[in-house]
Amino acid sequence: MSVSAGSRRRWAFASAVIASFGLLAVPGVASAADPTPVAAKYAALGGAAGVLGPALAAEDCSLTGGGCVQDFANGAIVWSSATGAHALTNDEVLTEWVEWGAVEGDLGYPTRDTFCGLAGGGCGQHFTGGSVYWSPASGAVAVYDVVRDVWSAQGWETGPLGYPTSDVECGLDWDACLQHFQRGTVYDSPAGTFAVSGSIKDRWGAQGWERGDLGYPTSAQFCGLKSGGCGQHFEGGSIYRGPSGTFIVTGAVEERWAAQGWENGQLGYPASEQFNALASVGQHFQGGSIYDTWYDGVVLVPVPLRDVWAAEGWERGMGYPTSDAFCGLRNGGCGQEFHNGSIYSSPAGTFAVKAAEAAWAAQGWETGALGYPVSRPFQTVDQGLGQHFQGGSVYTSYKGTFAVTGAIRDKWAALGWERGHLGSPISTAFCGLRGGGCGQHFQYGSIYSSPTGTFAVPTIRNGVSDLRSAWAAQGWESGALGYPTSDFFCGLSNLGCGQHFQGGSVYSVPGPLESVAVPTAIRDVWAARGWENGRYGYPSGPAYSVAGGIAQPFAGGTITVR
User: So which residues are the signal peptide here (predicted)?
Assistant: First the structure.
């Protein structure tokens, strides 16, 4: 700003303004025969009957730069060859001009007449080096060169700044200056000359004005943004006012926000101040969050992935994101990787995937048999974790992490999940069996799916006898029994259980034998005799070959089929 220490002196303002010009207070008028520019201006304003009233002194042309001045009862006319003749008709404006040195000061010669009728009953006048504005609320204040240019760009006294309320103040850091207005301040620094007002000014002040981390403004305040927002850039960052409030955005977070389109991008406006988290700096926005991490760079977490991350404990739960969100997945899904898992969003919902991630990945992520997650991870009865997906579930226990899909999952669910007879899975599903069948082992049995249907074959648990061992002894699905054709059934006499297969049945009753396979031919006879409730009771040993057929001992006798 062009305000020097010399121009700060205050002139002694005598009872008559003409004293500041060194004029004699002797009434006089210009010659009408050859009017000077001052006299012509006086006549144009109505002469003695006009706004200026009678002359108080003769015209004097000894001013700096060859200018002339004449004092009147209600003001003065000042002329120079460069600016022309202009009247000063407001006492407060005239007084301020004189106090700042009149034509010898930084304001210099007037460039137009005094104008009144401004907002709030104010008046103003422009000079070569600035302007003077007065209102009843603000008083008379000089506004110099570059500050005036900024103020005019803001709409003068009707703009957001209102009237000036203080003289220019210099001596700030980096030889900067400022001037206060009713609703803001203009700063002139090596970074430029800019106005700061409203909530942006309040937020800038709260962080220490120009001595804070933001430093001086580097742009004018810009409004008319989306949703009626405003923003302003500073040496060390920016301040934006949006629907969520007025917040500072700095550093790598600001750079990333700018790269995705500022407030017009997917993040929208800032919704929080920046905060320090574990080994990172973060900031929330309307549409997500940005984290500047020590290990993984600057990452963006959009809503709704962020909301799930929050529900999982932020960085103390899933750790920090290790990738940006990636979209364009099947059915319009999106995902994001974290240190301790991932979060996926799809039409099925948005869920974190933790312990199940490796098994899900092995199945082909969302394009595999499991599809997208449809539940968050949950605790199981054996202190493991489970999670449901569109096409199956993944369970983790001390035996490992395994996916359960399709018809096998449906059967397991019908039996009570891990709380039921089978417990948790202990193997992955295996397919390519005879007839296109598949199977999977669990803690207390197995489930097999084949052309005959999908059925569980249990081992001993909670009173259910070991049917699977007898089937296994027969060669599983490749043996004489083939695939199961029914679910196991218990509650028989003497606590017995049974299950039917393609080539026969397996029955079990507490005792030293436990479980026995009954071939179809013998089973049909046994069934005709009333099963275990008939004369034969339960089988007491395995079937064996006889001449021309087979036989099998039962508690009530032997059945022979030829």
Answer: 1-32
Burial 161-180 (b: 16+ CB within 10 A, else e): bbbbbebbeeebeeebbbbb
Distance, in Å, from the CA atom of 266 to the CA atom of 453, rounded to the nearest integer, reads 49
Q: Which amino acid is at 334?
A: C
- pLDDT tens, position by position, 369-378: 999 999 999 9
Torsion of CA 152, 157, 159, 161, to 10 degrees: 90
pLDDT digits (tens, 9 = 90+) for 60-96: 999 999 999 999 999 999 999 999 999 999 999 999 9
Radius of gyration of the chain (CA): 47
The dihedral region occupied by 13, where left means phi > 0, alpha psi between -120 and 50, and beta the remainder, is: beta
Indicate the pTM of the whole model.
0.78
Name the phi and psi angles at 217, rounded to 5. -65, 145
Distance of alpha carbon 509 from alpha carbon 536, whole angstroms: 14
Read off the amino acid at residue 183: R
**Alpha helix locations (H) across 338-466?**
357-362, 406-414
Structure tokens at 136: 């009843």
pLDDT tens per residue, range 15-63: 334 444 443 333 344 444 579 999 999 999 999 999 999 999 999 999 9
Q: Shortest CA distance to 248 belongs to which of 261, 259, 235, 260? A: 235
Closest CA to 555 of 543, 544, 542, 539: 539
Give domain limits for the chain.
Answer: 1-159, 355-458, 465-562
Query: Which residues, other chains included, contact 235 with Cβ-Cβ below 8 Å and sequence gap of 6+?
Result: 191, 214, 215, 216, 217, 218
Q: Which of 160, 229, 170, 155 is nearest to 196 (CA)?
A: 160
Adjacent-strand bridge partners of 137: none
